[in-house]
Structure formats: C-alpha cells, structure tokens
Amino acid sequence: MRSIIPMKHARALAVAAFALVALEALAGSPAAGKAKAALCAACHGLDGRSQMPEAPHLAGQVEGYLAAQLHAFKSGERHNEQMAIIVKALSPQDIDDLAAYYASLPPSNAADAHP
Ligand code: HEC
Question: pTM score, two decimals?
Fold first, then answer.
C-alpha cells in the first residue's frame, strides 16, 4: 500500500514539526520576564510605562523589536550608558523573557503621557 505522504515529504514534515517545538521552547515567557523586570522598573516603570523622560515606554512594543534592542545594547551596536550596564547581566533567555513580558502589556496611551 502506498502512503498518502511520500517518505521524503514525511521526513521534511517531521523536521519542520521538530523545529517548531524547538522554537517554542526558545521563545520568551512573559511570566518569567515579569519576575526579571524588577531590574527595569526604576526607569521603565512597573507596568512598562516609563518613569523618566529619557527612558522609553516598553509596554506593548513588538517583542522582536525589544529583544533586538537589548541584543544591540549588549553588543554595543546601540549605545546608552545606563542600558549598557543593565544588559551585561542579561542572558539571551532573560532577553527573550523580558521582551515577551513587555510586549504582553497594554501599550502606553498618548493621552496619559507625561505632561
Ligand atoms: C537606570 C535606568 C534604566 C534601567 C534600570 C533600565 N533601562 Fe532600559 N533604557 C533606559 C534609557 C535611558 C533608555 C533609552 C536609551 C536610548 O536613548 O538609546 C532605555 C532603552 C531601553 C530599550 C529600548 C527601547 C526602544 O524603544 O528602543 C529597551 C528595550 C530597554 N531599555 C529595556 C530595558 C530592560 C528590559 C531593563 C531591565 C532589565 C531596562 N531597560 C532597565 C534606562 C534604563
């Protein structure tokens, strides 16, 4: 009997499914990020709404963007003295978790921005 899915396709599907599972495992966890966000609250606010005029709001920003910025601070590609100190202590998993956490928060509303 011939299988509906030829063998080489079945193998490709299995590889794709495995890759998806692996990606899932690597993705950030908002709950883990929340616990790590205590480090960030003084400047970016407990809820990702910035407490300082020079620090941006993080709440509701795109996860991939946040992670990319943290990696850029870590590599020195993006430079900021305060962030450079903070990111030193962050692992790639911390970065993913923090990005997932802040992306999960409701975005800051321009109507209640700082005066
Ligand atoms: C001492 C204050 C301070 C602390 C603490 C701090 N940040 Fe920042 N962060 C800043 C400032 C200031 C900027 C703006 C940098 C710039 O102008 O390039 C910034 C920028 C960022 C950006 C870029 C946002 C954007 O819109 O491009 C991200 C992401 C970020 N911080 C995440 C974090 C995370 C996550 C933590 C905690 C692990 C943290 N920060 C802790 C001050 C701080």
Answer: 0.81
